[in-house]
Amino acid sequence: MRVGLISDTHGLMRPSVLAYLAGAEHIIHAGDIGGADILDALAELAPLTAVRGNNDHGPWADALPERITLELAGVRIHVLHDIAELDESVDAHAVICGHSHQPRAETVSGHLQINPGSAGRRRFKLPIAAGSLWIDGHGIRHEIHTFEPD
């Protein structure tokens, strides 16, 4: 199963990022979405799970949870916007976050933590990025993909 990972779009949905996420069986947005239209575009590609980021405001954002744990293909995935707010008691195989705009993936306290980076407007000299998580009988694999500005 391929899960698309995206965060920090801040109202900008790049065509190259949509093309990258096409074919995913599920998409996770880790907050700072920027508008319901972003969620609509992603939901056209695959089932979508999204959390509210610190810059998401208004009725559309109020309906989103601040954090959520879901199970996909037998793997528990916890999603929140800011990793600094992670409750260490969370029981998950993987944690997906955003906020920093810095793509990274590392194993911390026994679970994989992935920040796919920012797919929206470029911040400082940080890359434009999104990611994928593959879940199969061999475990979890991940990728962070960087993009040239559209």
Explained architecture:
The protein has helices at residues 15-21, 36-43, 59-62, and strands at 2-6, 26-29, 48-50, 67-72, 75-80, 94-96, 104-108, 111-115, 128-136, 139-147. The longest helix is centred in the N-terminal third of the chain and has 8 residues, at 36-43. The chain starts with a strand and ends with a strand. Helices cover 13% and strands 37% of the residues. The strands form two sheets. A five-stranded mixed sheet has the order 3-2-1-9-10, covered by helices on one side. A five-stranded mixed sheet has the order 4-5-6-8-7, with no helix packed on it. Strand 9 and strand 10 form a beta hairpin. By secondary structure, it is mostly beta strands. The protein is globular, with a radius of gyration of 14 Å.
Which series of helices and strands comes N to C? EHEHEHEEEEEEE
Estimate the mean pLDDT confidence: 95
What would you call the structural class?
Answer: mainly beta
Major sheet strand order: 3-2-1-9-10
Terminal-residue CA separation? 28 Å
Percentage of residues in DSSP E strands = 35-45%
- Largest sheet: number of strands, sense, barrel closure: 5 strands, mixed
Count every beta strand, where a strand is a DSSP E run of 2 or more residues. Answer: 10
Shape: globular
What is the percent of helical residues?
A: 10-25%
Number of discrete helical segments:
3
**Low-pLDDT residue intervals, each spanning 5 or more residues:** none
What's the gyration radius in Å?
14 Å
